[in-house]
Amino acid sequence: MFTFAKHITPSTFIYQQSLGVVTRHPEVSVCLVAFDSPGYRDALFTQLSIAFPDGLRSAVAKRRADYLAGRYAARQLLQNAGCESAVTMGADRAPVWPAGWWGSISHTEKWAIAILAPYRANIRLGVDIETLRPEVMREIATTFTTASERNLLDTRSLPYETALLIAFSAKESLFKALYPQAQHIFGFEAAKLCGLDPQQNRFTLELTSPLAPGLHAGYRIHGDYFIAADSVITLIV
User: Fold this and answer.
1) Rounded to 10 degrees, what is the CA torsion of 123, 74, 170, 232?
2) Are residue 74 and residue 39 in the same domain, yes or no?
3) Are residues 55 and 143 in the same domain?
4) What is the pLDDT of residues 83-140, one digit of tens each?
5) Number of domains present in the structure of the chain
């Protein structure tokens, strides 16, 4: 899924950093970082040269740590590409990428990931990382999947809870990929998982309702997934 060329240990807060590209799409760069959420403090924004946005003034420390790690990963990609501008926060709290660039950011309690590509018309980038909690997946399965989706997931050569998490994460990646075009909030019911290929680590989502011109009901989008020891990453390019 990813081909990493560099592995760095930059600081005590960001204690691991890997830089590379999306294997199937080498024009898309990726930065994956591990960070110490319990060790967060506000001074880290200054130390890491990341602007502290007004939208975080009322946020708890965990939210601030997540934001900092994600924006740090995005900045590494932009700087590697020769861009000194930063990703800012829009009025809708979505990331606003510098002119000429497009990307996506996600984080868990200890991992953050960002992807970046030169902007082009109709580019769609979505990435999501989630921690595997089998009992939680079983409890909330009906909130993000239909009975037919659960039947599909229960017949695959993957642990059922892992397959559920792939479906959850895939729909999160879909939202990030399509929101800039749709320009409105849509839920898990806007798409259904109609394909999961454990041999290729690929998934297929199909829109169940129109979201924007060109994004009609029945429109299909393919993506990739990666399973780690305690997490899942999904990607749409």
Assistant:
1) 150
2) yes
3) no
4) 999 999 998 989 999 999 999 999 999 999 999 999 986 789 999 999 999 999 999 9
5) 2
pLDDT (tens digit per residue) in 96-110: 999 999 999 999 999
Q: What angle do CA 162, 195, 115 make, to 5 degrees?
A: 70
Contact between 128 and 116 under an 8 Å Cβ cutoff? The reply is no
Rounded to 5 degrees, what are φ and ψ at 57? -55, -35
Q: What CATH number does residue 154 fall under?
A: 3.90.470.20
Cβ atoms 22, 115 nearer than 8 A:
yes
Note whether 101 and 137 are same-domain residues: no
Write out 11-72 in H/E/C secondary structure: CCCEEEEEEEEECCEEEEEEEEEEECHHHCCCHHHHHCCCCCCHHHCCCCHHHHHHHHHHHH
User: Taking the complete model, does pTM exceed 0.85, yes or no?
Assistant: yes
The CB-side HSE value for 213 (13 A sphere, CA atoms) comes to: 1
The last residue of one of the domains, among 76, 104, 123, is 123
Domain containing 68 equals: 2-123
